[in-house]
Structure formats: structure tokens, C-alpha cells
Amino acid sequence: MTTATDLPDGSVTTERLLLRPFTLDDLPAYVRIRDEASVRDWLRSPDEPAAVIAERSLRHFMDEWRTRGYGPWAVIDRRSGELVGHHGLRHMPDFDGETEVLYTLTERVRRQGIGVEAGRAALAYGFDRLGLDRIMAITLHDNLASRGVMERLGMTYRREATHKGFPVVYYAIDRSDWQAAAV
Ligand SMILES: CC(C)(COP(=O)(O)OP(=O)(O)OC[C@H]1O[C@@H](n2cnc3c(N)ncnc32)[C@H](O)[C@@H]1OP(=O)(O)O)[C@@H](O)C(=O)NCCC(=O)NCCS
User: Fold this and answer.
1) Is residue 78 part of a domain?
2) Side by side, which strands form the sheet with 72-77?
3) What is the pLDDT of residues 34-74, one digit of tens each?
4) Which residues form the domain of 115?
5) 111, 153, 163, 170: residue to mutate for ligand 1 pocket, most atoms within 8 A of CB
6) What is the pLDDT of residues 167-178, one digit of tens each?
7) Which candidate in 18, 20, 38, 146 could, as Cys together with 139 as Cys, close a disulfide (CB 3.0–4.6 Å)?
8) Whose CA is nearest to atom 31 of ligand 1?
9) Per-residue pLDDT, 1
10) How many domains does the chain fold into?
11) Is residue 153 part of a domain?
């Protein structure tokens, strides 16, 4: 089990990662990640330059931190100091205001358990620090990597849903399930 250390600005460190709010300095590296073919594909990115998509997302994530006090983190690989993706919690107005855990990592760091390592920190942040009762996640049916992260985090399939016009699967974990699994 990963142990995470909370820092006062909303950052968290785990064994291999620093999870911290984004700054505009992250934009060039984040554009490169959002421009990877697999990222564009799985996120069903609109037909716009990655620079536009990345800046919109990054500003949205920063706004969430500013106005709500939490949001998706920049994922920093502590070994290299590089930005390797986004991961964390996001308020979802179109899902009755529930909180989603969402994530995307650059191709070169995948399949090393980083999605799950950051995910455990995100769930701990949501349940322990924010006092949430439930955290949900959605993904396209055939995104086995995303579903794998959800399942390794103890989230369970609940229902079919629609998001931005795409059919998705909806997974969730309730506080009681998370507390039971953490024992
Ligand atoms: C989804 C994503 C963040 C997963 O990150 P990751 O660090 O590679 O995931 P992990 O290494 O923690 O893997 C967790 C589990 O997911 C499953 N999994 C991961 N990658 C997989 C793949 N390519 N195919 C099938 N299952 C996969 C496995 O069950 C894995 O556990 P295991 O390695 O013990 O078997 C990453 O693949 C990604 O960024 N994909 C592109 C963007 C995206 O799809 N984002 C999610 C949108 S909903």
C-alpha cells in the first residue's frame, strides 16, 4: 500500500510521485502529453490543436483549485522531475455534482502502477481530507487500462451512462467500501 504525505497547498507526495496543482509553467509539457495519439484518441479530443485543448484543460484545473479548493493534480515523476500527466479529483456538474477521479499519463510511464499509485492518493484525499461520501469514474467501454485502474482502486461497475455524447461505463467507490478495503 502506498503511503501518501499531504502538503498544505493541496499537494501530495507518494513513493514515486509529487501530485500538485498545475501552474501555467506546466503548459509546454502538458501540450506534448495531450498531443500523443493515444491520449487524443482515448480522451476523444476535439479536432483542435493540442495547444488549445491543453491550455483549456489546464486553466480549468487551476480554476477548480482556486474556486473549489481541489481539482486534478499535475503528476510529477520524482525521479526525473518531469510532468507525466494529470490525475486527481474533479467536480462533475453533469453527474449531479459528484466527484470524479480522472487521469491521463504520458505513454512512456504507463504500465508501472503509476495510475493506481496516484489513484490511491486521490481517493485518500477525497475521503479523508474532503470528506466525500462517494467518488466515481467514467470511461469508454473498451478502455481496459482505465477500467483496470478503477478496479485496482476498489471501484465497482455500477451502470451505463453518457458523457459529452459518448456511451461510457460508470464506476464508483463509496466511503464505506474504501474504509473497509483500507483496513
Ligand atoms: C489509463 C492510464 C492512466 C493507466 O495508467 P497506468 O499507470 O498505465 O496504469 P497502471 O499501471 O496503474 O495499471 C493498473 C491496471 O490497469 C490495467 N491496465 C493498465 N494498462 C492496461 C492496458 N494497456 N491494457 C489492459 N489493461 C491495462 C491492469 O489491470 C493494471 O494492473 P496490472 O498492471 O497489475 O495488471 C493510462 O493508460 C493512460 O493515460 N491512458 C491514455 C489516456 C486515458 O485513457 N485516460 C483515461 C480516460 S478515462
Assistant:
1) yes
2) 5-6, 12-13, 17-20, 72-77, 83-92, 98-105, 134-139, 166-174, 156-163
3) 999 999 999 999 999 999 999 999 999 999 999 999 999 99
4) 5-133
5) 111
6) 999 999 999 999
7) 146
8) 148
9) 47
10) 1
11) no
Q: Which three cell numbers stand for residue 139?
A: 470511461
Q: Could you tell me the distance, in angstroms and rounded to a whole number, from the CA of residue 146 to the centre of ligand 1?
A: 5
Closest CA to 19 of 78, 61, 64, 67: 78
Which triple of cell numbers denotes residue 16?
514515486
Digit-coded pLDDT (tens) for 86-142? 999 999 999 999 999 999 999 999 999 999 999 999 999 999 999 999 999 999 999
- Residue nearest to ligand 1 atom 45, measured at CA: 104
Torsion 147-170-181-103 (CA) sign: positive
CATH number (domain holding residue 75): 3.40.630.30
In a domain, 139, yes or no: no
Pairing of strands 17-20, 72-77: antiparallel
Structural domain contains residue 171: no
Cα(113) to centroid(ligand 1), Å: 8
Query: Each residue of 127-168: pLDDT tens digit?
Result: 999 999 999 999 999 999 999 999 999 999 999 999 999 999
